[in-house]
Design a protein that fits this description.
Bound molecules: NADP nicotinamide-adenine-dinucleotide phosphate
Number of helices: 10
Helix content: 25-40%
Strand order of the largest sheet: 3-2-1-4-5-6-10
Order of helices and strands: EHEEHEHHEHEEHEEHEHEHH
Oligomer: single chain
Number of strands: 11
CATH class of one domain: Alpha Beta
Low-confidence stretches: none
CATH superfamily of one domain: NAD(P)-binding Rossmann-like Domain
Length: 302
Amino acid sequence: MFKVAVIGASGLLGRAIVDELGQQRDWQVVATAFSRPDANRIALDIRDAPAVDRFIEQQAPDAVVIAAAERRPDVCEHNPELARALNVDAVRTLAAAAHRCGAWTLSISTDYVFDGAHPPYQPDSAPAPLNAYGRSKLEGERALMESTDLGCVLRLPLLYGPTVDWAESAVTSLVPAIAASAAPDGKPAVMDAWAIRYPTFTPDVAFVIRQMLERHARGKAIRGIVQWSGDEPMNKYEIAVRLAEALQLSAHLTPQATPADATPRPHNCHLASGRLEALGIGRRTPFDTAIRQVLAAFPWRG
Ligand SMILES: NC(=O)c1ccc[n+]([C@@H]2O[C@H](COP(=O)([O-])OP(=O)(O)OC[C@H]3O[C@@H](n4cnc5c(N)ncnc54)[C@H](OP(=O)(O)O)[C@@H]3O)[C@@H](O)[C@H]2O)c1
């Protein structure tokens, strides 16, 4: 039996990973959560190093997938201690514990390790994060590599997928403003048209991770840094237009050509996915198809 521990299984990406891996015969998935444990998710605070060590020792997994993180740039900016505890120190603790039991560790990172000025970015392009979130995730990558020689970093861009709350993703978080702008007395919703993103569907990422785990199960574990990205560039204004179409709303959207975020964000961090593609790994669901699945499963109630 091939056993995978998914850390942060209650999050946007973690849920998709558990759904995908749960379909594998002969695989056992042990899932953890922090504030949202349930019958299928064990409570584990990854800041509690002795608890992490005990968990990994008791479970003795073949692989550990770290999807737990503080991923909100504004929170990381205002609470760098929390960002460090989750995105750096906990990665080190988990990877060291996994290494002791011979498990492969896959840690999720972000395109925000780059400054966005010179896309596309290769796994070995020089990182230069612009904000506290990107800095903490870059340190987390280094912590992983220092803690195990059986480790892999998977960098990802903006994610969206089956959701339990619009705010879970920067894609679906646009829905309330789009809907409000379509109301009879609705004011136009101003949308960033400056930053270029490559929205990536969490079930596709989960499929990629399953393929990576299959390689490990065959004794061909991928080590070092790999990247995966959707291939449809869009700014938030364009994402909003496509969401409005999918929702069949006559939204009033105004593009804003200059960045408006309080936290500095990169312009275009397009991640080259070639290393995984060369291994025959990958799947890309078209944005319009995927977003309709997301909206249908969590319908907007106006
Ligand atoms: N979302 C994006 O657009 C995006 C883009 C690029 C990369 N990433 C990376 O992808 C990964 C997954 O992100 P996501 O969007 O799925 O994040 P998310 O939805 O915010 O989920 C975060 C997960 O971390 C868990 N967690 C929080 N504090 C914890 C603690 N103290 N101990 C243990 N677990 C804790 C949460 O558990 P509870 O919910 O149970 O509290 C949840 O399962 C992260 O590494 C993120 O940096 C995300």
